[in-house]
């Protein structure tokens, strides 16, 4: 299977609707701080959409500090994880493709939205995931496989910072293998 496909996804583009408060009335309103259409970042093998990124956890919502942080991330997309905040990311995986085997130092919730993907672990274990299925990634080495010969797959991820994982007395570091265009976590 190909691992170095760099192309735009044909799947529907995504909008995000961010809420905030009107300072004078205290009522809920939609923010216009960022465009509603979620931009894409094409990385060989996948298409990323940064739905939202925060710089710290717990998140500071007062004064729209989180919105300011997100705007800075949009200017220069970070690595797979922000080590002190959260990430909402949508990943589109092309037909007949496999992501590099990789590890994030985070607790990741992955939910398949479109298509069918295999979650492959470095032990060789595999689980096939269909729309609505969830993966709870706990700092493990893994890859995503879309075996379909013609259809793209889409997965939504929520990444949260975690303490470093230690196995057998060894601290496990993030490992992005050969993911071109992906920077190390901040």
From TrEMBL:
<dbReference type="InterPro" id="IPR047142">
    <property type="entry name" value="OryJ/VirC-like"/>
</dbReference>
<dbReference type="InterPro" id="IPR011051">
    <property type="entry name" value="RmlC_Cupin_sf"/>
</dbReference>
<protein>
    <submittedName>
        <fullName>Cupin domain-containing protein</fullName>
    </submittedName>
</protein>
<dbReference type="InterPro" id="IPR014710">
    <property type="entry name" value="RmlC-like_jellyroll"/>
</dbReference>
